[in-house]
Amino acid sequence: MVSRWMYISLVILYGFLLGPFVIIFMAGFGANANLAFPPQGFTLDWFANVFETAQFIDSFWISLQLGLSSTIVSLIMGMPVAYALVRYQFSASGMVETIFSAPILVPGLVIGFAMLNFFVLLGDMSVLTGLFIGHTAILFPYSVRVISASLRNLDPYVEDAAVSLGANRLRGFLLVVLPNMQAGIAAAFVLGFITSFNNVPVSLFLSGPGVTTLPVSMLSYLEYYFDPTIAAVSTLLVIFTVVLVQAAERLLGLSQFV
Amino acid sequence: MIRRPNQNRTIILLVAPACVFVLVFFVLPLIFLLSQSVLPEEGGFTLTGYRDFFESRVSRIVYLRTLKLGVIVTVICVVIGYPAAFVLARMPARRRSFLMSLVILPLMTNAVARTFAWLIILGKRGMINQTLLSLDLIENPVRFMFSETAIVLGLAQLFLPLMVLPLVSALENIPEDVLEAARNLGANRLTTFVRIVVPLSSDGLVLGATLVFTGSVTAFVTPAILGGPRLLLMSTLLRQKVVTLFDLHAAAVVAVVMILTTLAVNLLLRVFRVQQS
Question: What's the complex ipTM?
């Protein structure tokens, strides 16, 4: 059934998906400043430039803090929801599921715009708080889904055994369920962090003086400068992501949840 | 299972904090956005914002262009993704999981980085122009950037994984025996593909197409970098209304049209799924 021309489509797929990365790596190490192809010579100047540009360093820290805090909060609040959906049958469960998948259905740019209007312009909230709220909201669908999948793999009787042996429900959850969900929680954490860390649309309108996320500051850099510094940042980010995902994959088998 | 007293109270306690968060911090701003699109600053309820949007030639062109490019990107992703997913689904597990991780990797890298490569490929002194120049096929660099083609290429590269992943999981579930049976009963490859493979993987196809289409019509980074300020899509139009013109009423209208478009597509998907089952 698999014929030769189908293998050609595989070559096109991977050429299309991975070719851009090869080009970014080449441009990041190339010496010409005008993005001409092929790059001439070899230099690390563009990487040096990344670390000398305050805009990138500052926004990296903001993205890192934002990614960690919104992921943790969405997990802490999403976990009980996942638990309720998997362990109990209740009439409103369909509605609850709809509420928590809503942030996926609304375009990110629109979410960011709505947050700007309502919280920053009308409510006089700080841009950073707006960013935190927006990112936490868009991570709920991921946390609830991944944690639910992980809970479904866990035999409910294990927990019931703990309760019948005298633990209360909360103790049963903390001492029996939680340790058995480590892999799922870690997978949800990595997935959530990467989603927040890479997000542009939600963050676009929510930036103020000195407060921007890394991808948005990369975008605004591109509007003023046309040199390979962005290729260098991108190369660093790809390495960062691959290390993160590989570590998660080795430790926990991330791919079973994606 | 053990009888659980006060079940309703427990459920409410578990679900309430996150529900309140989503309702207050997510749904409420969207309701405000909706009200903003029908209540201009002068006061009073009016639908003139929507009338203006659909009567303006510029925004009509932008809207139709957005939908058109969304369709083209979806078709390209199906044409490349379907046969590729089929090959992937029939591979031995080890090799497949390695190749699948290469499909997922781009999804984990930010869109700015992935779109930047196209500047180097399509730019005035980019890969394609330099190649054509050195082969003497052209005398002056051709402008590929800031074109619909550039946006389509960028979007297709961005969203191909979202087509391949659901297709592979749908195609994996087709037993080899079924394909063999079709062959033994005399069907050639094309017939088998059209009459057996496509119907059995339609779930994955429809899901992939929905993800790619809604992603394409709402993507911001790609049209911002590869389309520029003159070739607007809905997302870049929204940014222009907010940042350049500071017309929040008109921007809210654009935003609501974007939401309604993605909701309509997702609703169609749901109808299709119900019909299937």
Answer: 0.91
